[in-house]
Amino acid sequence: MKIAIGNDHRGFFLKKKILQKFSRQFPHLAFVNVGSDSDERVDYPDYASKVAQKISQGECDRGILICGSGVGMSIAANKFPGVRASLVWDPQVAALTRQHNDSNVLCLSGDLMDEKKAFDIVQVWLETSFEGGRHAIRVEKIQALEKELRKKK
Asked: What's domain 2-152's superfamily in CATH?
């Protein structure tokens, strides 16, 4: 599985730690780092679009985005067709976004959660599968909305 990971300046340190931990823990995962590699100020939409584009175009299977709150990244990423970006603050929510929504982009706060909680969230999100069934019908409805909106443009 290929995972695009991106961040702005406020997500730089958490991204580094996630890459260190999960590259060792899950050697079968290929992380594609498209984030800022420093804590100098940058604009989060630039990095959200890099990750979201890789998901939307099928270059990567999933993505992780990190900014100060996680909110800006999730707003920007969800503008791309096929992207289901979820702002997550708790491991249980991480599981639900995968089980029920088939989320393919995880958005995290670099400022508002500690490293351990972030690690727990990432691990749950990576290990949880989509349940399908009634949830697949709902995801298909989201995809139909995207398609309809693209036609209207």
From this structure: Sugar-phosphate isomerase, RpiB/LacA/LacB (3.40.1400.10)
CB atoms within 10 A of CB 136: 12
pTM (global) more than 0.90: yes
Could you report the per-residue pLDDT of 16-47, keeping only the tens digit for each?
999 999 999 999 999 999 999 999 999 999 99
Q: 21: how many CB neighbours lie within 10 A of its CB?
A: 15
Are the CB atoms for 124 and 103 separated by under 8 Å?
no
Q: Which amino acid is at 6?
A: G
**Catalytic annotation, pick one of 9, 28, 60, 100:** 100
The answer to whether residue 67 is catalytic is: yes
Tokens of 91: 């491991």
Q: Which of 9, 67, 107, 135 is catalytic?
A: 67
